[in-house]
Structure formats: C-alpha cells, structure tokens
Specification:
Oligomer: single chain
Radius of gyration: 18 Å
Structural class: alpha/beta
Distance between the termini: 63 Å
Largest sheet: 8 strands, mixed
Length: 308
Amino acid sequence: MRKRTIQMTVSLTSVLFFLVTIPMSAQRRGAAEPPKVPEGITMHRDIAYVTDGHERQKLDLYIPDEGENLPLIIWIHGGAWLGGNKRHYVPKAHLKSGYAGASINYRLSQHAIFPAQIEDVKAAVRWLRANAGTYRLDPNRFAAWGSSAGGHLVAMLGTTGDVEAFEVGENSEVSSKVQAVVDYYGPTDFLQMDAHRLPDGLVHDAPDSPESKLVGGPIQQHKDRVAKANPITYVSKDDPPFLIIHGDQDKLVPYHQSVLLKDALEKAGVSVKFYRVEGGGHGWFRDPKVPELTKVFLEQHLKQIQSR
C-alpha cells in the first residue's frame, strides 16, 4: 500500500510539473486555438527542421514585417520532457521590440530518450542559421530562452556549442552555438535533486520520475547517462553569457540546481547573471525584476553587439 501511494504521488506531481510550464491563459484557451500573432509580425508555422523527420521536429517562426539582420530569440518549451508545445511562444512581447522569434518542438521522452532532445534542439538552431538569409535573421545574434525542462535544454545548448557528439543530421556546415542563454529554473544535476528538494517537493529518484524517463531508467542506477544530460559536464570558458532565474521555494526543480550551474559557469570565467526570486515557486513570478532583468540581458547581448 505504501509503495502504491508513493507512485501515485509522483505521477500526479509529474502532471503538475507539465501543467505549470504552460501559461495559464493558454491552458484556458485550449491547445486547439491557434496562437495570436501581434500586428506587424508574420508567422511561419510548422516548418520541418529535419527532412522527413518525426512529427515533433518542427518549429514556428515569428518575423517582423520590417527590418534586416534581425536578432532572434529561440524559445524552448518546458513540460518535464513529457509534454508541452511550441505553439505558446512565451517571449511574444519582445517581437514588438525588433526581435524575431522561433519556437521549437522536440521529441519527448516517450518518443526517444536523451540525447534525442538536445540533438533536436541543435538541429533546429542549425536550420535557423542555415536559413537566416531567407528570413532576414542575423546568424550571429541568436539567444536561447527556456523554462523548466526547456531551461535544461537551453543550458545544454549553451554549454555544448563545441560538443560534436550532439551534432546529428543536416546543416552540419553551420554551428548550433547561441550567443546568449536565458535559463528559467531549469534542472541540471539530476542526482542532487532529491538531496535539496523541499519536504513536499517532487521525488526525482523514483523510477517513473520525469528525469528517470528522460534517461531511460532510474537516475541513481544510470549515473553515466545522467552525467551526459548535465549541462555542467560541458561548461567551458567559451560558453555564451547566461541569465539564470529561479524561485527559492520551487517544489518541482530545487533552487539548488541553478546554484550549481551558476557556480560552475563562474568558476570557468563565463559571464553569468543570477537572480533568486525570494518566495518564488516554479514560475508564475510576480517579481517585476524578472522581466526587467530579462529585457536588459537580451538587449545587452543581442542588440548591443555588432554582427560580424
């Protein structure tokens, strides 16, 4: 009986883990309603970034009708690597400030285990860079932004720019590197999550936890796979600047996860801005500093640099 109760708790919490990564307004509208595009923005929907690939290997593009050599904000959705959708482009407000946008779907853990997810994200970035001229994008000004599981993937993207093992598929002549990373409360070292979780937080060592499903087995029994999925494994001095934001009362991804990444980046000499949201949970921050810091960070690292 005790074992069954624990498994049910983990399962229900996993569902919550998925739901909280999707904007509440989007949940109310329902997944069937197409996203609204701001005036002056053209949307290109369901572009395959892998030829004859999986149905999830598609992206949406949001291109301002005016401007050339546009900086690009790439959004990678969360959802415990089990759910979520590119249709909800969270940085939409920035489209009116001279940025183009891309929103990426990737194979979920029920489709393929890690490293499929980072391979897909990298393939999408290479496609975007290879087709930058067609869509008036500046290939030297790409930022990756994600929350929760998406935060994990943008952190992976930022630290594995020089890791050939994850470069799979087409457009190999161009780079998957990004010039800036915005990581909202993403996991890093799965093996340390339970040691720092809140008393009523998600149990991550469970065999059916989102992290275990991602790596294809209980994380404590597959430490080599967990290390491969840890962005800290690949940190080097050449990584792009990071903005990391995390609530210190997060019940799903322990706050300590972002501290670990921050410390590793600082030790390597990487530029990192870290902000602790006091009393903040798993997103839904009411702290006005969060959007302010994000806006300034993007302007500093995308708008105030000159394209080579």
